[in-house]
Amino acid sequence: MSEAAGVRLRPANPADAAAMVAVHAASVDAERGRGDCDDRQIRAWAWRHTPEQLAERMSRRVFVVAETSDDLVAYGQLDIVAGVLRSLHVAPEWQRQGIGERVAEALLAKAHAAGLSAVGLDASLNAVPFYRSLGFTELDRVDHPLANGRSMTCVRMVKRLTP
């Protein structure tokens, strides 16, 4: 797919699932202390998926990973049927280097190629500026359900895709 600064993008495969869970947990855990979520919300959000669940979802969603020669450092998943970017996580030590943007752009390109006219998502409060920089617009605030029955406030956003 893409290669720059020692990080390349490629489609995910089931063997990546455990590393994706670790990236997800680390990126969410890095949210502690920022004030958008309490500790119980962070715990529920951080441990939301098992490797088996992610591997099973690969059969019906588009997953892209970013990797170095040694490690998987980011991933994102797109539900083409629903037109929703389900997740995008970058390991904390790799954040703010353009990797999340590259993963998002790869997924948006897949959405466009599939004929979608728009892609939606529920952004955590701290991620709103990131998605806004990619051309997503805010619709409203929503309570996003978490695994333990709790919820967290998110911003529903949408990006219109040009034909």
Kindly list the characteristics that best describe this protein.
about 160 residues; Aminopeptidase; 3-stranded antiparallel beta sheet; globular; 5-stranded antiparallel beta sheet; 5 helices; single chain; alpha+beta
Walk me through what this model shows:
The protein is an alpha+beta fold. It contains five helices and eight strands; from the N terminus they run E-E-H-H-H-E-E-E-H-E-H-E-E. A hairpin with a 4-residue loop joins strand 3 and strand 4.
Give the SSE layout.
Elements: E1 2-4, E2 7-11, H1 17-29, H2 39-46, H3 51-57, E3 62-67, E4 72-79, E5 84-90, H4 99-113, E6 118-124, H5 128-133, E7 137-145, E8 151-160
Antiparallel strand pairs: 1-2, 2-3, 3-4, 4-5, 6-8, 7-8
Helix pairs in contact: 1-2, 1-3
In short:
It is built from 5 helices and 8 strands.
